[in-house]
Write a structure and sequence with these properties.
- The protein is built from ten helices and four strands; from the N terminus they run E-H-E-H-E-E-H-H-H-H-H-H-H-H.
- With 224 residues, the chain is α+β, with helices and mostly antiparallel strands.
- The protein has a four-stranded mixed β-sheet with strand order 2-1-3-4, with helices on one face.
- A hairpin with a 2-residue loop joins strand 3 and strand 4.
- The chain is globular.
- It catalyses: RX + glutathione = an S-substituted glutathione + a halide anion + H(+).
Length: 224
């Protein structure tokens, strides 16, 4: 396998997924930091449909979308550790829960934390709370989602561990607490001790500063 290049953005949970997967497999890669307000011609060329990061380019061939890229990494570099489970049923469940995070939970974060409308915010927070309860029940009694080792769903759901606490600190809206979601917090404690997560997670103070500015800008636009 030849040159591997990742087009990413600092502070993006989607970029982090890809880099964690590459680090788990011991794959050497070059990263290209993208300015999402001024995207490079290369990024637009490699991902002309969605025009988003991350994009991984292997020997000049682009692969887009973080979940797709993670599967490609696992299938291409076949040695241990495996990211997806080996059994077809377990693989299907891993894909299901990853889609749950991306299609259900992630879209609820913005209305829950960024809305200044009291009624809308309360409704969105309740819906986010319900989704976290589903995740709490799924991880209960487990070390990681796939068993005793970090895997596909854990990497995808790292947004719960890293980004939700960040947004809570920035907005003062508390949704995820150890008292209410003890199983998620037990899993989070295990996940944050994994060296591959420690190496790739963004600094929390810097992340909070980034989102503080981002939220202020977004709120200013909505009140213009």
């Amino acid at each position: 396998m030849g040159e591997v290049k990742v087009y990413r953005a600092w502070g993006s949970p989607f970029s982090m997924r890809v880099e964690v997967a590459l680090k788990m497999k011991g794959v050497k890669y070059e990263y290209v930091e993208e300015d999402l307000l001024n995207k490079s011609d290369e990024l637009l060329q490699y991902n002309p449909i969605h025009k988003k990061i991350p994009v991984m380019v292997v020997d000049g061939k682009p692969i887009a979308e973080s979940l797709v890229i993670m599967e490609y990494i696992d299938e291409t570099w076949k040695g241990d550790p495996h990211i997806l489970p080996s059994h077809p049923y377990d693989r299907a469940r891993a894909r299901f829960w990853s889609k749950f995070v991306d299609d259900k939970l992630l879209p609820q974060l913005k209305p829950a934390f960024m809305s200044n409308d009291g009624e809308q915010s309360t409704k969105a927070i309740k819906e986010l709370d319900d989704l976290l309860t589903i995740l709490e029940n799924e991880i209960k009694g487990k070390k990681f989602f796939g068993g005793n080792n970090i895997g596909f769903v854990d990497i995808v759901a790292s947004v719960v561990v890293i980004w939700i606490p960040c947004w809570q600190a920035v907005t003062g809206k508390e949704v995820l607490t150890r008292e209410k979601f003890p199983s998620i917090y037990s899993w989070a404690d295990e996940l944050l001790e994994c060296s591959v997560i420690k190496q790739n997670m963004p600094d929390q103070e810097k992340l909070q500063a980034f989102y503080r500015d981002h939220f202020a800008l977004m709120n200013a636009k909505t009140t213009d």
